[in-house]
Predict the 3D structure of the following.
Amino acid sequence: MTGQELEGGIAVLDFGGQYAHLICRRVRALGVYAALLPHDTSLEELSKARVAGVVLSGGPASVYSDGAPEAAPGLFEGSIPILGICYGYQLMVRAHGGEVRRAGRREYGRSRVKVVEGGGLLDGLVSKDLACWMSHSDSATKIPPTMQVLATTDGSPYAAVRLSGAPQYGVQFHPEVSHTEKGQDVLSNFVLGICRARKTWSMEGFLEKSVEEHSKLEGRVLCAVSGGVDSSVTAALLARAIGDRLQCVFIDTGLLRKGEGDRVRKHLGEELGVRVAFVDASDKFLGALAGEPDPERKRETVGKAFADVFEGFARDRGPFAYLAQGTLYPDVIESGRSLGPASVIKTHHNVGGLPAGLSMRVVEPLRELYKDEVRELGALLGLPKAVVEAHPFPGPGLAVRVIGEVTPEKLRICREAGAIVEEVLEEEGVHGEVWQAFAYVGDDLVTGVLGDERTTGRQVTVKVVESVDAMTADWSRLSAPVLERISSRITNEVAGVVAVAYAISSKPPATIEPQ
Ligand code: XMP
């Protein structure tokens, strides 16, 4: 079984830059397949795969430092079109006899690029003065006579260059980030204009091909569904491919968001006809967690209980030939991954600690996709907005949003208050713009007044964060009226809560989840 072929597509060589994945996504957004490959992938391999072009990503190293990642020998002597970005550009300049030095002035953040010549790469942008994103300490300080300047910035006289005699281009700025004005035009000029790459990448095409490939799977497939985007899309796709031979299981841990089970029942079970078994294991999970205040031990306890219940189900309802998982592309990229079509299936035993008797092969239908592509695929499969735009939810569930011991009362407060936060943001039209929005609760009791009486109750903390990849996050500057609505609904509707706080810490130093 094969994945998307790279023939006619773009190979992005990964020099360790934080935006390497983003380059792939931007190219795919042009309808061209792009895959991230190791930085030292050889010219021979690239030629054999018949790629239309190569993009060299940025990277944190200095081209002169020990152990700095190098391109494969001869890469710059071939005829495949190349676009070097930042570090990739510096390697290109050096390979052609130019000079790269530590810049007198580090350029980081927004800068202005002045386009002096189109040269293919910057066609349509000549004489423009564009905002661009820079992030480099080294700079090309001298370019060889074979290179021509296409653009400059105040800090870089060689902000974009072209090589004569071969389709090679370099940019010191990052066309892939959204802060670079017309960055997508630059990529489009390279990918579609210079490389003449084939527009074979579309979600409709992916879906059709994937359904056809997975329909050849023999035997039954087991898939745990949580109500989250990845597992729901995995299940919906496999159900379309193999129908009733897919068995999904939804394990109610008692630690889930409000209405999670009902949503799975409705959207996967009823609307898409996916066969889903519901296992109520909440007593087992809550029993195992009782009396345990330590965050790490709570996580371990939930993980172990999950494995127990899942294994029990697989044994009772098996045998299953395959275990389906919603692994995404960024998770499967490992150094040393060979060029060539991604294999959709790999053999794994004892995945996630499954006992040897339960060995199943792993099938990962989403392993070529990015998160936003998965959402698009989910919509094509008929999953509603409530599922495809669901916020991420941690594996240990509300156990990490209840500070201290997990008790039924604190769980109820956390679940009800969290649902209110999400509902209000949905009504205000901002749910889709934030990364996560939830409530957490601890053991502290605060004083309140109810009617004329003083009373004590819980204080709930509301947390709404913005993020791109969860590595860093910032608190969302919600308007006062929105905060006011959230606060008054929680204190009015959730019994036992008398006060609401809003978390205004970024990550770092705080993490997104409170535990
Ligand atoms: P933190 O709290 O580390 O979380 O800033 C980063 C992102 O990961 C999610 N998260 C988890 N997801 N299992 C998961 O599947 C976990 O144990 C887990 N812990 C945190 C969190 O919701 C956020 O999106």
